[in-house]
């Protein structure tokens, strides 16, 4: 991810403004996949093929829904925002709970956990 950010800023890649909405929705879906991967890693369930396929499928699905909605004149991008945005917050909440549990488990003696 860091390499992609560095390349993106260094190469000064541009795209037509008509694609900005599609790219934004694909990025939202991709961020959902990244947080899902972090969550599954922290839970000890991470699987690389599942992450890669989910990452690509989510980005393609988001872009396809926005495109289809654009062609039909229906704001289907709301579905993308609702679903992937909700999952983003859910994954972030679980990651937060895991980090808090790990932090307090290491900091407090065993008799305070009862």
Structure, explained:
78% of the residues lie in helices and 0% in strands. The chain has helices at 2-11, 20-42, 48-72, 77-107. It has four helices and no strands. The model has no long low-confidence stretch (mean pLDDT 85). It has one domain (18-112). With 114 residues, the protein is an all-alpha fold.
Fraction of helical residues: over 70%
Gyration radius, in Å: 18 Å
Provide the domain count.
Answer: 1
SS class? mainly alpha
Q: Give the tally of β-strands.
A: 0
Overall geometric form: globular
Q: Assess the beta-strand content as a share of residues.
A: under 5%
Largest sheet: none
Order of helices and strands: HHHH
**How many individual helices?**
4
C-alpha termini separation: 41 Å
Any key phrases for this structure?
single chain, 114 residues, mainly alpha, 0% strand
Set out the fold topology.
Elements: H1 2-11, H2 20-42, H3 48-72, H4 77-107
Helix pairs in contact: 2-3, 2-4
Concise overview:
The chain has 114 residues and is mainly alpha-helical. The protein contains 4 helices and no strands.
């Amino acid at each position: 991810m860091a390499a992609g950010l560095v390349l993106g800023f260094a190469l000064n890649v541009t795209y037509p403004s008509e694609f900005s909405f599609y790219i934004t929705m694909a990025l939202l879906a991709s961020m959902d996949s990244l947080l899902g991967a972090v969550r599954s890693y922290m839970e000890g369930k991470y699987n690389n093929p599942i992450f890669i396929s989910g990452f690509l499928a989510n980005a393609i699905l988001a872009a396809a829904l926005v495109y289809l909605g654009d062609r039909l004149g229906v704001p289907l991008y709301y579905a993308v925002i609702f679903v992937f945005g909700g999952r983003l917050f859910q994954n972030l909440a679980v990651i937060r709970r895991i980090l808090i549990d790990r932090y307090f488990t290491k900091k407090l003696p065993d008799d305070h956990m009862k």
